[in-house]
Design a protein that fits this description.
The protein is an alpha+beta fold. It is built from 19 helices and 56 strands. The C terminus is likely disordered.
């Protein structure tokens, strides 16, 4: 899918149809419509083009109607930009986002008489637009008093800038209103002791706009300006849903439902000193069982300086009180997490589901049990930029898997920060595979750009404001913009087919993991397990959280936890000092059901929050932990190095393992077959063996071509299959373990596998075994039934170097010579004989971007009769295709550089053509150096060296010991696959 960047409602029905047709014809699943104008540098009239305007509603109806006609899915982002916000929302009202802010006075002489301390005012701008002309006035957020108390400092003389407090001395001053004066004398007052502070805590609206993270948009997203809703109150949810109902017609909602679409909530990027909501003190007491007021000083922060800065604490605490503060802050975070789910996630999900559509969201950025939230969403989504390569992915995916769901969506920002129009197809594929290996199985590419820039509101000449190659949603630093403006789009079907097939496999059945690690992070993961360092390669792990265990009651069968989901074989309690009682009871139930539990480090002895009743809950925790440790399936305190040994002693082995360097394996099962996605995450090419432990015989699923090939050469070791593996950096392979008739044809099993071979490769073609030789040497093959086949030496021609190339280039340029247009012209450049070298080294195309077609004619003599051939490209950068004698070679891996031409070559003259499509980097950095000049020039094109390498195929006869007669005519064998897995109507 693509995130489709719209410049608000400044979209044309004809362009909408054209772009949707481009997406459909390229083979993609659908689009997510997002109103994003971050790169627009001039005023656009929001009354005409804002999200929710009549033009927006009409455009949305057009898009959903056309998408339905084309069989595309449509998701719609909830609101313009992010976080979710409502135009004109009262900053001081109950539905707007809130923060807790503190103010304090250091007492002079131990007595305070005066007003309640007030915080520094929060001033925000209220902008409005008339015919695109923006006017601005300033308002001040009105604070509401929450609590007033006094706390003694740890020292007689308080530090005015950051007092160190003694929490045990808290006195509630019980001030009832902001106008009530305070007249208070510290207890046990002495004339020389002034070590007290009076602290007031206030609730106020943040005034945050929906232009996170920077909050500096020079235009209005909506008119009146939108304000972010309270994510922890029903009032906030209801305010947004009421607004949403004015932005999407019933016809559009029905169309989204018919095409399987979703409402999508983007990033939760709230800005506050301390997140808060109206009625928090009551909610906290109800949910946690004690009053928060004595601990509010622990949650007192200065407002953050910038969008990516953490708020700094106002007060200091002793080591003892720091521990208390951690526990109080944990309880506050847990309360916010509960309120987010109850008052935000669930109301949005119900609204969508009641209308037949799904709710997709990114549950992170604030205190949230990510695994629990992911389990509750229709579609949980993470983000390549927000989570990088962290275990956030495992945390979220585990919630999806434990809940029995499938999709782990990915807001995939290709290349991240660093530039635009700079990603080669090879780089994209490597990043795609990396996202799969993290746990994503639905990619939403960020993004597809609408074609035209929005019209300026001030009537200025639009051509002086817009730039080729078209509208983009973000500044030039992020991210790549997909679509027909890119030369690579002409080869997009190849990439789309790969995405479709890989995601088909990664959405089939259920993900299986070896180990579950307990973790109680709220928001992004803290203290990840780091299985790469602590486990031998091959072991996979996920996470269990307190909320997930409470939501989905643990079940076990045959020692497997959640057997119909990830089927964990063991649970690890990793250096866990604290543990909620509900989690302890769940762990005890697992142990009682025979699930092994490995306890690393000291056993948990405290609850993570403040214990309101130490005489009961601490004892309950200790008793429950003691019961856990008494079970025979529980192993205590192995060292980190011994962890794998402990797992093996428990007969826990990974389902997939590789000896080939840093290889990551994803295992899925649908009952009929087991699938293994194998990814080389190292920075070097790897070679070695892979061990797959599942029932059946091995197959290779080629996601580029769709071919399913039964593998012939392997060994069997303890009911596991051992295969050779060779991968380039960033490459991936898919293997299946399945019944012999999985591909639709039965092969005589008695001959397989081939247990040793000196041929270059052996493969299955239909009902035949075929040996392939790349040299003139003899070969010997031994089959599992005792058959030995000897293939005598037979001469092959030497590889043929291909040095004589012609190059025809279609250069992509703006229609307007100064780039003041979104239209592209193509200038054809015909170059004579060239050496294979990067385009910047070829005179005449040093700064060109576009599509180059290389062609060469070769003469083959009779010695090439009855031979197949590989075409070895050497180095290549860019999307590419190959044509031989007028026939396209389908399903080319864009990461490979050797391709099987089969028997397409003929005696006499042959023409080979290689078309290479580049990105726009080199031309853009030349035309617009202010925006793109910092991006390095790229070395793209067919770089070579290129050559043809012949091979000879031999069908292996049936028998015991057979000597192949070299004087007999060679069989003509096409490299056909047993079957293909198709991409129609599959996820992409």
């Amino acid at each position: 899918m693509f995130r489709w960047w719209w410049p608000g409602a400044a979209v044309d029905p004809a362009i909408i149809r054209s772009q949707l047709e481009s997406v459909a014809s390229a083979g993609y699943k659908g689009i997510e419509i997002a109103d994003v104008k971050v790169s627009v540098e001039y005023p656009v009239d929001p009354d005409l083009y804002q999200y929710g305007s009549p033009a927006w509603r009409a455009a949305l109806e057009t898009a959903t109607r056309e998408a339905e006609r084309l069989g595309l899915q449509v998701d719609v982002t909830m609101g313009p930009h992010w976080p979710v916000a409502v135009p004109g929302l009262d900053v001081d009202g109950p539905a707007s986002s809130k923060e807790l802010i503190g103010a304090y006075v250091v007492l002079d002489g131990g007595t305070y008489t005066g007003p309640v301390p007030l915080p520094e005012p929060l001033i925000y701008s209220n902008r409005s637009s008339t015919n695109g002309r923006i006017t601005e006035r300033h308002s001040t957020s009105v604070p509401t008093l929450i609590s007033v108390g006094a706390v003694r400092c740890q020292t007689a003389k308080c530090d005015d800038s950051s007092p160190e407090l003694d929490l045990t001395t808290f006195v509630d001053l019980r001030v009832t209103g902001t106008d009530s004066p305070i007249d208070w004398r510290a207890p046990n007052h002495a004339p020389d002791h002034s070590g007290w502070v009076v602290i007031a805590h206030w609730q106020r609206g943040t005034g945050q706009r929906n232009d996170a993270p920077w909050g500096t948009t020079p235009y209005l997203v909506t008119n009146p300006e939108s304000r972010v809703v309270d994510h922890f109150s029903l009032q906030g949810a209801h305010a947004f849903l009421e607004f949403l109902e004015t932005t999407i017609s019933e016809a559009t909602i029905s169309a989204i439902a018919r095409v399987g679409g979703a409402l999508f909530e983007d990033s939760i990027e709230l800005k506050a000193a301390q997140l808060w909501t109206t009625g928090m003190l009551t909610e906290f007491r109800t949910r946690r069982g004690y009053a928060l007021e004595p601990y509010l000083a622990c949650a007192t922060y200065h407002p953050p300086d910038g969008p990516f800065d953490e708020p700094k604490p106002v007060f200091k605490f002793s080591q003892r009180d720091s521990k208390t503060c951690r526990r109080a802050r944990r309880d506050l975070a847990q309360t916010l997490a509960d309120l987010y789910i109850d008052n935000h996630l669930l109301p949005f999900k119900r609204w969508a589901n009641d209308r037949g559509i799904r709710f997709r969201a990114q549950p992170y950025g604030i205190p949230i049990d990510m695994a629990k939230a992911a389990a509750m969403l229709d579609v949980a989504e993470d983000e390549s930029f927000a989570s990088g390569t962290s275990d956030d992915w495992k945390l979220m995916a585990s919630g999806v898997e434990v809940a029995g769901k499938v999709l782990v969506s990915d807001e995939f920002i290709v290349g991240g920060f660093g530039g635009t129009y700079r990603m080669s197809t090879q780089q994209i594929v490597r990043e795609v595979n990396a996202q799969y290996a993290l746990g994503a199985n639905q990619l939403v590419f960020h993004g597809l750009a609408y074609e035209d820039w929005p019209p300026p509101a001030d009537g200025a000449n639009a051509d002086s404001l817009v730039r080729w190659p078209g509208y983009r949603a973000f500044m030039p630093r992020i991210p790549d913009a997909f679509g027909p403006r890119n030369p690579t789009w002409e080869f997009e079907q190849t990439l789309a087919s790969y995405l479709a097939r890989t995601q088909l496999v990664l959405q089939t059945g259920q993900r299986r993991r070896d180990i579950a690690v307990y973790n109680q992070s709220l928001n992004h993961i803290q203290k990840p397990f780091d299985g790469d360092e602590r486990l031998e390669p091959g072991y996979s792990y996920g996470y269990l959280t307190p909320g997930l265990l409470e939501l989905v009651v643990p079940k076990a069968r045959d020692g497997r936890l959640y057997p119909d989901g990830p089927a964990f074989k063991a649970v690890i309690l990793d250096m866990q000092e604290t543990l909620p009682l509900v989690a302890a009871e769940s762990l005890l139930a697992m142990a009682n059901d025979g699930v092994p539990i490995i306890v690393l480090g000291d056993v948990p002895s405290e609850l993570p929050g403040i214990d309101a009743d130490k005489g009961r809950t601490t004892a309950d925790l200790s008793r429950t932990v003691d019961e856990i440790l008494s079970r025979s399936v529980v192993v205590r305190n192995p060292s980190a190095k011994a962890l794998t040994r402990v797992l093996r002693r428990l007969n826990i082995e990974p389902a997939g393992r590789s000896s080939a360097g840093k290889v990551r394996i994803i295992h899925r099962s649908d009952g009929d077959a087991d699938y293994f996605f194998v990814y080389n995450r190292s920075e070097q090419d790897v070679s070695g063996e892979i061990r797959l432990c599942a029932a059946g015989v091995p197959y290779h699923l080629d996601a580029w071509s769709g071919n399913v090939t039964r593998l012939a050469e392997y060994t069997v070791d303890d009911e596991c299959v051992v295969l050779s593996l060779s991968q380039q950096t960033g490459d991936a392979d898919i293997f299946a373990m399945a019944p012999p008739d999985y591909s639709g044809e039965m092969l005589n099993d008695q001959r397989l596998p081939i247990v040793s071979s000196s041929a270059d490769s052996v493969y299955v073609s239909g009902r035949d075994l075929v040996a392939r030789k790349l040299d003139s040497q003899a070969a010997r093959l031994a089959l599992s039934d005792g058959t030995v086949v000897e293939i005598e030496a037979r001469r092959l021609p030497e590889p043929l170097n291909l040095d004589d190339w012609q190059l025809r280039v279609e250069s992509f340029l703006p229609l307007d010579p100064e780039g003041r247009s979104t239209e592209t012209r193509r200038e054809v450049l015909a170059l004579g004989p060239i050496e294979l070298t990067p385009w910047p080294d070829i005179p005449g195309i040093e700064t060109v971007s576009g599509i180059g077609t290389y062609s060469t004619d070769i003469e083959l003599g009779d010695e090439w009769a009855d031979l197949g051939a590989y075409f070895e490209l050497g180095e290549i950068s860019g999307a590419f295709s190959i044509r031989v004698n007028g026939e396209d070679i389908a399903g080319l891996s864009q990461l490979d550089n050797r391709f099987d031409l089969g028997y397409r070559l003929r005696i006499g003259t042959n023409r080979i053509e290689v078309a290479v499509a580049t990105n726009l980097n080199n031309v853009l950095r030349t035309l617009f150096p202010a925006d793109y000049g910092s991006q390095p020039i790229q070395q793209y094109g067919l770089i070579g060296p290129a050559r043809l390498r012949p091979y000879r195929d031999t069908i292996l006869p049936v028998g015991k010991t057979i000597r192949y007669d070299s004087s007999a005519a060679a069989p003509t064998v096409s490299p056909a696959a047993d079957a293909a897995f198709q991409t129609s109507a599959l996820p992409q």
